[in-house]
Amino acid sequence: MSLFPYFSTLVTLAVLDSVWLLIIAYSFYKNQLIHILAPAETAWAVIILYPLYAFGVTYFAVLPALKERSTKRAIVLGALFGLAVYGYYNLTNQAMLMDWPPLYTLVDMVWGVCITVVASVVSYTLAVRRVGR
Hints:
Blueprint: H1 4-24, H2 26-33, H3 43-68, H4 71-96, H5 102-132
């Protein structure tokens, strides 16, 4: 299998998360986390985060879906992976940090499921179409 599913997952995640974080949910996230936000992004963490998450989505959701030729599998595995990863992150913060907003936990976990499902399905669909040529 080529690296195409990985790169299509990476690009999809980056585009969707940029739109979400910079346009749609910017005010909400800023209002929820203003008291703990760093003054500037930590670029090295972002550079590691997206390729690592794209690898996980590709390995645990997209590739199994491609093996079975199943969009439904991409949806289910993407949802489960997104819930597990975003849930682990948010619930750990909820348990460990004094001022972690519960509403943020809920919204971010829902977003995690949504972005991961969409990235899984987009990557799966593009890979199937590419092979079909």
